[in-house]
Design brief:
five-stranded parallel sheet; seven-stranded antiparallel sheet; 397 residues; 2 domains; single chain; binds flavin-adenine dinucleotide
Length: 397
């Protein structure tokens, strides 16, 4: 039986601890006065803990090795059962039956304790040394000695939950490469002049990320138009490469189709105008899109709201259809790490044995969860990776 230290009592750390405790003496060190603070914030407090669609394109990394992680078919439902959770599915998204994230956090902690894991709260690990095949945590004061260490410190996002990037520094002590972390699943900022006018509007839309005019990713869903730019799950899902592109001075734009379900908006408007004749454009549009948005779009198409569809010249009609279906907004920044739901980048997967999560550089050192260079789409994929990497590590360490 080895002595195993888990640094971080979040989703991945507690999962690894539960499995490692079957064969080892395990201590979890958590800097906060409670474990899993981030879990409590997930899915708006409901915890979207898994997704039925596990195709690889929902997980992202700068390493091609990511596909190797998913070679093994892991039974996530056996894990949920171990936690005595009752998962319910809605349109492919899994939640605990209680629809409360605290159920998941409490289950992890309870099962860890039942399996003999010791949880040390309010315990911050700021330094690790390896000497004579053993790890010494906080060598200058506590001097705690372990045979194996699992780094599960999270990334740099939502630092108020305890993950402030210290995990990257601990990994760097052992010469691990950290791919630059950037905010992902995050609101996108623009400097357009009309943002105050559309603030608060929500609309169904299809959004397309364009970098230097090349289409990168398309997503559909509810868009939120804010005083800083654009938000909503569909925007989050196209956000991961934005910060990197901006850092490299590339042109970032999002094209928004406010009529995603209509193939021929021109004909739709022509037909509508034949039914309701001679109404001003604002009234003409108000019935089909939010009125605040109608005003912004008319302004951007350089059309007066007093005009009617019938008096528009053909090119003006085309301009109006274009702002409705291919409205292009320039993106100048993303929201901060504090507001992001995850980070792109992290400890390089190239340096991790993806069958065991052990470091290829230092034996008996393991790295899991969001600290690694893996980020998932919205929809249960980030917790999904935390569970899966925790299980693999705990079983194999
Ligand atoms: C607002 C929000 C909503 C989200 N919603 C979802 C969702 O619905 N579905 C989904 O799949 N994902 C969601 N995510 C992402 C998901 O929560 C994370 O990917 C996941 O929790 C990562 O788990 P982790 O264990 O790797 O890291 P973390 O959860 O960040 O845990 C790391 C833990 O380590 C502790 N720690 C760090 N450094 C030290 C140290 N040196 N010493 C001691 N302790 C330390 C921290 O205090 C923390 O408790 C959301 C994230 C946010 C911010």
């Amino acid at each position: 039986m080895s002595k195993v230290a888990v640094i971080g009592g979040g989703a991945s750390g507690l999962t690894a601890a539960i499995y490692a405790a079957m064969r080892h003496e395990v201590v979890v060190f958590e800097r906060n006065n409670e474990c899993g603070k981030k879990i409590l914030a997930t899915g708006n407090g409901k915890c979207n803990m898994w997704n039925k669609d596990q195709s690889l394109d929902h997980y992202h990394s700068s390493s091609a090795f990511i596909k190797d992680f998913f070679h093994e078919n892991m039974d996530i439902f056996a894990f949920f059962q171990k936690l005595d959770l009752v998962p319910i599915e809605k349109e492919g998204y899994y939640y605990p039956h209680s629809k409360q994230a605290i159920t998941v956090r409490n289950a992890l902690e309870r099962v860890a304790l039942q399996n003999g894991v010791v949880i040390q709260k309010n315990f911050f690990i700021q330094e690790i040394k390896k000497e004579n095949n053993q790890f010494i945590l906080n060598p200058n004061f506590e001097h705690l000695v372990f045979d194996k260490v699992i780094l599960a410190c999270g990334s740099k996002c939502a630092p108020k939950t305890g993950s402030d990037g210290i995990g990257y520094e601990l990994a760097k002590i052992f010469s691990h490469t950290v791919v630059m972390p950037r905010p992902s699943l995050v609101q996108l900022y623009s400097d357009a002049s009309f943002l105050k006018e559309w603030n608060g509007v929500r609309s169904e839309a299809e959004v397309t990320l364009q970098i230097d005019k090349n289409e990168i990713k398309k997503e559909g869903g509810e868009i939120q138009l804010t005083k800083n730019g654009i938000s909503g799950i569909c925007v989050f899902n196209i956000s991961r490469s934005v910060k990197e592109a901006l850092d490299h001075h590339r042109k970032v734009e999002v094209k928004i189709n406010f009529f995603p379900d209509c193939d021929d908006v021109f004909s739709f408007l022509e037909k509508r105008s034949s039914l309701i004749k001679d109404v001003s454009l604002d009234v003409f549009l108000e019935a089909i899109i939010p009125y605040k948005l109608a005003f912004v779009l008319l302004k951007c198409a350089h059309l007066s709201s007093n005009m009617t569809w019938n008096v528009l010249k053909p090119e003006e009609k085309r301009d109006l259809v274009s702002v409705l279906t291919a409205f292009t907004i320039k993106i100048v920044d993303t929201n901060s790490f504090a507001e992001a739901q995850c980070c792109s980048g992290g400890v390089s997967l190239d340096e991790i044995n993806l069958d065991t999560m052990e470091s290829k550089l230092v034996s008996n050192l393991y790295i899991i969860g969001e600290l690694l260079d893996v980020d998932g789409d919205c929809g249960g994929y980030n917790l999904g990776f935390a569970w899966l990497s925790g299980i693999k590590c705990g079983k194999n360490c």
